[in-house]
Amino acid sequence: MAGIEGRDRPARARRSPLPHEAAGDPPACHQGGAQCRPPAWDCAAHEGRGAADPLPDGAAQRRAPPGTEPWARPLTPGGAPVSAAGRRARAPAPRPSRQVEAFMPLEVGIALGKLFTRQQAKHIVALAKQSPDWDAATVLNREGKVLKPQVRSARVLTEKVLPEAFADFRERLQLALAGADWLPWRHLTMTPLQLVRYGVNDFYRLHRDDRPGGKRRLSIVCYLNDDFDGGETAFPKLDIRVQPHGGMAVLFDSSLLHGAERVSRGEKFVFVAWLATQPEEGP
């Protein structure tokens, strides 16, 4: 399940724009470029804790010498991950399992877990495709939740459309979080969930999930399929991209700058959730 790609470097270099960024755009969020507060945990202080079940080989080797981690690959100037031989690197698929795997910290502010088997995730995608009740995705800013297709191009389903699938996701997420005893919070509220559908050329520009003065603390993206091209979750300040794998979930600090890269082939389906210090209205 090693789905993270990135690199270590001695000095911060100017990064290349992500594919969906307009030329000349600064690497700031659409909420006015608010500064990201420091991640709420330091994963190095909790190494080896929080996994109810072992992650697949390689995922736990996050403190190997630079350049040797199976989940860490150098990035080309254009941002494409490559192996030592110059080929595009693809992270190994997660092992099939009927059990939820707790979130394991792999980088400061980021952790990976496994919530579904590929078959379970595939079944949810099949159900979602049958629904006619897809709505345009919104973004969160100081005015609340608004439509901004130039920032977020995707469609969403809410819990009322597929209640059983959403309830299953919620329960699995709670189980995975219960095993992550390294998290600093124990009294967070899960906000309304979404199932998001990205078609060809859909994306979510760089943003932060927690607006200034907001209450969101943790964000979760659970990938339901991987039979598409593009669509990686990018964390430019960490120089990391997470490659989707069906059933795998990434948890991260809601203040981290991140984006969903443009899908170039197929469709991408994800569950998304946020944990906040107080309830939040609507999807």
What is the distance, rounded to the nearest whole angstrom, between the alpha carbons of the first and last residues? 29 Å
Residue stretches low in confidence (pLDDT < 50, at least 5 long) are 7-98
Helix/strand-derived class? mainly beta
**CATH fold-level assignment:** Jelly Rolls
CATH class: Mainly Beta
Overall pLDDT metric? 71
Q: State the helix count.
A: 2
Shape: globular
For the secondary structure, the number of strands is: 19
The CATH fourth-level homologous superfamily: q2cbj1_9rhob like domain
Helix amount: 10-25%
Please indicate the percent range of residues in DSSP E strands (runs of 2 or more): 25-35%
Order of SSEs, N→C?
A: EEEHEEEEEHEEEEEEEEEEE
Total separate domains: 1
CATH architecture: Sandwich
Radius of gyration: 18 Å
Sum this structure up briefly.
The protein is mainly β and 283 residues long. Helix content is 10%, strand content 27%.
What order do the helices and strands come in, and which of them pair?
Elements: E1 4-6, E2 101-107, E3 110-114, H1 118-130, E4 135-136, E5 139-141, E6 144-146, E7 152-153, E8 155-157, H2 163-178, E9 189-190, E10 194-198, E11 203-207, E12 216-223, E13 229-230, E14 233-235, E15 240-242, E16 248-253, E17 258-260, E18 263-265, E19 268-276
Antiparallel strand pairs: 1-15, 2-3, 3-16, 4-8, 5-6, 7-11, 8-10, 9-19, 10-19, 11-17, 12-16, 12-19, 13-18, 14-15, 14-17
